[in-house]
Amino acid sequence: MMPEPAPSLQQLLAFYLESGVDCALNDEPVNRMLDDEIVAPARAELRAAEPPSRLETTRPVGVQPVIPSSAAVPLVPEAAIVSAREAAATAPTLEALRALMEQFDGCALRSTATRLVFADGNPQARLMLVGEAPGREEDIEGLPFVGRSGKLLDLMLAAIGLDRSQVYIANVIPWRPPGNRTPTPQETQICLPFIRRQIELVNPAILVTLGNPSTQTLLSTRDGIMRTRGRWFDYDTGTRMIRALPTLHPAYLLRQPTYKRLAWQDLRAIATALAAIQSPAN
Length: 282
Ligand code: URA
Fold this sequence. Notes:
Blueprint: H1 9-18, H2 36-49, H3 54-57, H4 77-90, H5 94-103, H6 109-112, E1 120-121, E2 127-131, H7 136-141, H8 148-159, E3 167-171, H9 185-202, E4 206-210, H10 212-219, H11 225-228, E5 233-236, E6 241-247, H12 250-255, H13 260-276
Parallel strand pairs: 2-3, 2-4, 4-6
Antiparallel strand pairs: 1-3, 5-6
Helix pairs in contact: 4-9
Residues 131-135, 138, 144-145, 147, 149-150, 171, 251 line the site of uracil.
């Protein structure tokens, strides 16, 4: 049989792009299959999913299995969620929350992202907007919504007389998923306690969820964004209720500009609600 011809450089790059690889993390390639920090949790997850081995089922009661000392004690998703929840609950301020998120190693996205993308804007703002996850530009700059969709978000805010000094912006996921892939449900659940605590600490008068993933995650609805946008929800921080309005994600509006008229209706509803709130801060 004739061996397959080696792919050309163009073919290889096209394959990478199609697989979601759109930037180089380092100058030199790294064989991640030899990296224990990445491989050990994945192996442990597989082990946890396996039925107990015959040896384990015959282990006498009270005798613990021997875990090789070289095996890191990985955080399986459930443990990572509990750990995130416990950590987030201890953060008394946004600075403390940011600091503990910088250290949190229960989410694998942290190891592929360049940096944590915590927030932008004014922590005293009455309006908080939450997107899905940082993209490439956000990952480079460490700020949410600074790429193309961020520029559109700025224009949307300007249309109701606001800029970033008057709003607070964050994402459900604070680390860029590689190649901008959709975050997995586990990654979302692991990051959820952090954004929930962030919302509680900012304590805005109005919360705007940008796009479907953020809306479904934060407002616990399974309805799609075309049903939820423009409808007021109650968001329970655990200590108080906040009015929440889903709207279309600016990245979606870049792809479907005809829906900008719907976003405009939502923006007007936000402006009206803000105007109705009496606050000495503004
Ligand atoms: N899309 C998001 O949801 N968040 C960002 O920060 C950038 C793009």
